[in-house]
Specification:
Layout (H helix, E strand, L loop, with lengths): L2 H36 L14 H34 L3 E5 L5 E4 L1 H7 L9 H5 L2 H13 L3 E7 L4 E10 L4 E8 L1 H36 L8 H30 L7 E4 L1 H18 L3 E6 L6 E4 H17 L6 E12 L5 E11 L31 H11 L3 E7 L3 E9 L3
Helix pairs in contact: 6-7, 7-10, 8-9, 9-10
């Protein structure tokens, strides 16, 4: 055989072997690099040559950037999840078919469902007015709003539906407006009541003044009487202004209680002594029935006596001559937050007056509330409301029991000193 041909064949074989070895080595490195990528390796692969080193560094840089973006997205997701969980407004996200994809705890609580995800909007919200608002949003691709009153639960809900034009779904925001509506009602009633209460004495003052200007002032008998009436109306307005100021300060928490240990019997006797002359003028018996060995209570002496005086004043005002008003106190208990009995002292003011209709009992502690014309006269309608706030500020409770025509009993409890 020709030596030249043999040499050429050997060279070709060696070159082929070299290329084959390079191919096999390159393939092995690519497979190792692919495995490293699948494992999200963060460091460049060790290589004996530089053929893939630049590619390795570039891809690893991309991996690092991607991992940083994923970490940022996870952090943002956790932050948004925390916000949704803490929101008082309900949030629902539904797809184009009306299947709930996400809900926060407030939405599940408002609609009384445990698991909203995967269920239809109709199943979750149930009220057809709200479902119709969602359907209008889907049809028009415009924001929709709907309000709903739930009489069974005395609840007011407002739904705002916003279309998701990218995913063809919708975002539903549900707000519980119950407290806002109640505050609006209280404000409206307060303005109406105070306007009514002020109208009567102001009209009376106007009429009395005009009568005096018309010549009654020179009348020796009528003049002084009209002046006394004006003085009485001014006193009523002054009392109303003071009680409104007291009520406002108590409700806003601006009144600080001067707490001390008080003996229940001494508290009752002090209030009775202040009202004894008024009871005698009304031809009523006013007595205290209280044991000496009762535990002391922790309270503000002036404020608690104010509560008792207001209750005695009402009892005297609505009890016919010959009746009786009895003040008493006894031991009682109330459950604390852990279900254990908390020692209390229960105070009571009982009268033999005209009583209160059963339908009116739940509302008698509201501001300006009057039962009927037969129970009005001289008062502002604020005393019981002030008393309720004072008792509640002492961590107690106040209520009333009554039988029409037989009398009423007002109770309130104050925690006893342990």
């Amino acid at each position: 055989m020709n030596p030249i041909l043999i040499a050429v064949a050997v060279v070709v074989a060696l070159v082929g072997a070299w290329f084959a070895w390079r191919y096999i080595d390159l393939r092995r490195r690519l497979e190792a690099y692919t495995h490293a990528l699948a494992s999200t390796a963060r460091t460049p692969l060790p290589m004996a040559s530089k053929e893939l080193e630049d590619l390795s560094i570039a891809v690893n840089s991309l991996i690092l950037d991607l991992n940083q973006q994923l970490a940022g997205l996870n952090e943002e997701h956790d932050r948004l999840a925390t916000v949704l969980d803490q929101m008082t407004d309900g949030v629902l996200i539904a797809d184009a078919e009306g299947r709930v994809q996400l809900s926060n705890p407030a939405a599940r609580r408002l609609f009384g469902v445990r698991d909203a995800e995967g269920r239809s909007i109709t199943e979750v919200m149930r009220y057809h007015q709200l479902v119709e608002a969602w359907r209008r949003c889907q049809d028009t691709q415009e924001m929709q709003s709907e309000s709903l009153e739930v009489p069974a639960r005395r609840q007011f809900l407002q739904l705002i539906v916003v279309p998701d034009r990218h995913a063809s779904g919708s975002l539903l925001l549900v707000q519980d407006l119950t407290r806002v509506r109640r505050l609006e009602t209280v404000r409206r009633d307060f303005i109406s009541n105070i306007s009514h209460e002020l109208r009567t004495p102001l009209a009376s003052l106007k009429a009395l003044t005009e009568t005096l200007q018309g010549g009654a002032l020179s009348d020796e008998q009528a003049g002084p009487w009209f002046l006394e009436r004006i003085s009485a109306e001014v006193d009523a307005l002054t009392q109303m202004a003071q009680e409104l100021l007291d009520l406002s300060r108590i409700e806003s928490g601006q009144v600080e209680l001067d707490l001390e240990d008080l003996q229940p019997r001494a508290l009752l006797e002090g209030a009775a002594e202040r009202m004894r002359m008024q009871a005698e003028r009304a031809e009523l018996q006013l007595r205290v029935e209280c044991a000496e060995e009762l535990p002391a209570v922790r309270g503000d002496h002036a404020r608690l006596e104010q509560v008792l005086v207001n209750l005695i004043h009402n009892a005297v005002k609505f009890t016919p001559p010959g009746g009786a008003v009895v003040l008493s106190a006894n031991q009682a208990s109330a459950p604390n937050g852990e279900g254990e009995p908390l020692p209390m002292v229960r105070f009571a003011v009982r009268d033999t007056g005209i009583g209160i209709p059963a339908d009116d009992l739940p509302r008698i502690f509201e501001r300006f509330y009057r039962v009927d014309k037969s129970r009005t006269g001289g008062g502002t309608g604020l005393g019981l409301s002030i008393g309720r706030h004072i008792v509640e500020a002492h961590q107690g409770r106040i209520w009333a029991e009554s039988i029409e025509g037989e009398g009423s009993t007002f109770y309130f409890t104050i925690p006893a000193v342990k």
